[in-house]
Write a structure and sequence with these properties.
Blueprint lengths: L2 E2 L1 E3 L2 E3 L6 E6 L4 E7 L3 H16 L1 H4 L2 H17 L1 H12 L3 H4 L3 H18 L4 E4 L7 E9 L2 E5 L5 H14 L3 E5 L6 H13 L6 E3 L8 H7 L5 E5 L2 H12 L4 E5 L4 E5 L5 H13 L9 E7 L3 H13 L19 H16 L3 E4 L19 E4 L6 H4 L6 E7 L2 H8 L4 E2 L1 E5 L3 H10 L4 E4 L14 E2 L2 E2 L4 H8 E9 L1
Parallel strand pairs: 1-5, 8-9, 8-11, 9-10, 11-12, 13-14, 13-19, 14-17, 16-17, 19-20
Antiparallel strand pairs: 2-3, 4-5, 6-7, 7-23, 12-22, 15-16, 18-21
The structure holds 1,4-dihydronicotinamide adenine dinucleotide and the ligand O=C(O)/C=C/C=C(\O)C(=O)O.
Length: about 475
């Protein structure tokens, strides 16, 4: 069986401890590979390699040379597209139809976009008067922040890891990545592409392992890492924030959400159903931007619930290679336990189960997978944990509202503020509501329409900072002002 090693200083290396853990295919529960678990020794070696690489050829390259290499990395991913696709789908169980349109192309695009951006975004310059009349000139330059610790999740493994590594490298940093223990393969494979593209040794390092008391914690506790970027649960974000406080290291956190969809009576119903379907069920509901709370204006409530039920029941659940399948399993049996506990809680709290609520019958070896039914509820109280907690499964609760004010209040009622989708053909209303919903990302009559130049991140407990476009450049560089007396 294949074993997945760390990638440190341009070499694949195993753990000194010899400790390995299983990488499991969530579609059938079978072990796909064995993964080396990093101890402090491997994490330290990766950080030292990354520090040394800052002073090596990488640190001396011109911007042109560095960005040309990152274009080669993107081309390298595309050249091995099928290999990345196969690996990502084995690790996550997601449909190939989904990963081939989103995960792998975005994995490549994240390098190209930020390589181009760093070349084209200007910095400030200010002329100022001085008492002697000669004046002074201020100009700002960007410098790499240093060694960046990247801690990435399992729901969009390649996409979210490269969303951080792409701009970090474009800005001249070096990285140590700790991918999720659930989905290590594409992050490991990227090491080969980095090598082939000419990325110098030590610039891209990968250590595998778990979070607390394992590779994740060893990385965030390491004093020679200059900043951390993380996507995952809000509770984990708090732990990372505390670790980063020692030594005053910078953080960028993209955390949990419990996103609201607001559907007004003046919406285009077809668009609202299609968009809400994707936002609730795409990637088996494992998207931080997904909609788990849907608020629908009372006059169209019954029609909306009926149509969403019909659409959800039309989803085809199946393994990655099933070309007809548009919903895969959850990432693991452990995660399924969490999701099913909310399915049970909904019933206990008196929900009407509009559709789903359980585990589908899967044939043959698929019976060992982490499958769940797409699920819709109505009738829960606003304070039910099903309505307030991030479930991260293919499910949503739908509740009626009577006024625009009430819809906004409901949307803003939780401590999260990541994303929201507003469905209305009244453009004045859409702008008005978008301005008042407390979330970092608002879609109007769409969902997950992504322009990588835009600010991306959450307000309230959904995150700290923004990435995307110039905001990524802000995080991954130190801005230095140079004041020249003339
Ligand atoms: N994209 C997102 O917003 C994601 C949200 N989640 C949410 O989090 C819930 C739990 O899933 P988990 O995989 O447990 O998420 P998590 O937040 O614990 O894991 C994400 C990453 O953080 C690492 N990590 C965990 N604890 C750490 C620590 N103390 N120090 C450093 N690194 C640490 C993990 O190894 C993984 O690489 C999900 O049910 C979902 O609600 C999970 C993954 C992605
Ligand atoms: O498009 C992106 O950059 C990110 C999409 C999804 C997430 O961030 C997530 O699910 O965590």
């Amino acid at each position: 069986m294949k074993d997945i090693k760390h990638y440190i200083n341009g070499q694949y290396v195993g753990s000194a401890s010899g400790k390995l853990f299983d990488n499991v295919n969530p579609a059938n529960g079978k072990v796909i590979s064995k993964v080396h678990e990093a101890g402090r020794e491997e994490v330290d070696a990766a950080v030292q390699a990354a520090r040394a690489a800052l002073r090596g050829p990488w640190g001396k390259m011109t911007l042109e040379q560095r960005t040309a290499i990152l274009h080669k990395v993107a081309d390298g991913i595309n050249a091995r597209f099928d290999e990345f696709l196969e690996a990502e789908c084995l690790d996550t169980g997601k449909p190939k139809s989904l990963a081939s349109h989103i995960d792998i192309p975005r994995g490549a695009a994240n390098f190209k976009v930020f390589a181009d951006m760093i070349k084209n975004v200007p910095t400030e310059a200010f002329e100022m008067p001085t008492p002697d009349g000669a004046g002074a000139l201020n100009y700002a330059v960007r410098r790499p922040k240093g060694v960046i610790g990247v801690i990435s999740p399992w729901n969009l493994p390649l996409l979210l890891m490269t969303w951080k590594v792409g701009p970090a490298l474009a800005c001249g940093n070096t990285v140590v990545v700790k991918p999720s223990e659930e989905t290590p393969t594409t992050t490991a494979l990227l090491g080969e592409v980095m090598k082939e593209a000419g990325v110098p040794d030590g610039v891209y390092n990968v250590v595998h392992g778990f979070g607390g008391d394992s590779a994740g914690a060893y990385l965030t506790e390491h004093p020679q890492v200059d900043g951390f970027t993380f996507t995952g649960e809000t509770g984990t974000g708090e732990v990372i924030m505390k670790a980063a406080a020692k030594g005053i290291r910078d953080i960028s956190l993209e955390l949990g959400g419990k996103n609201a969809g607001l559907v007004f009576a003046d919406c285009d119903m077809d668009k609202a159903i299609e968009g809400t379907m994707r936002s609730a069920f795409a990637n088996c509901g494992q998207v931080c931007l997904g909609t788990e709370r849907v608020y629908v204006e009372r006059s169209i409530f019954d029609e909306f619930v009926g149509r969403l039920k019909e659409a959800a029941e039309g989803l085809k659940i199946g393994p990655p290679d099933d070309a007809e399948a548009n919903m895969g399993p959850l990432v693991s049996l452990k995660h399924r336990e969490k999701v099913l506990s909310y399915y049970q809680k909904a019933v206990d709290d008196g929900a009407t189960v509009v559709t789903g609520g359980g585990v589908p019958d899967m044939p043959g070896e698929l019976a060992g997978g982490a499958w769940v039914q797409p699920t819709i509820w109505t009738g829960l109280a606003d304070d039910s944990a099903v309505v307030t907690d991030e479930i991260f499964g293919p499910c949503c609760h739908i509740r009626p509202f009577d006024t625009e004010e009430e819809a906004i209040e409901l949307a803003n009622s939780l401590p999260y503020g990541l994303a929201s989708a507003i469905w209305s053909e009244n453009i004045t209303r859409a702008h008005r509501v978008a301005g008042r919903v407390e979330a970092g990302i608002i879609w109007v009559n769409s969902w997950f329409l992504r322009d990588l130049r835009t600010p991306f991140g959450g307000s309230k407990q959904s995150g700290v900072g923004r990435e995307g476009g110039v905001h990524s450049l802000e995080f991954y560089t130190e801005m230095k002002n140079i004041c020249v007396k003339l």
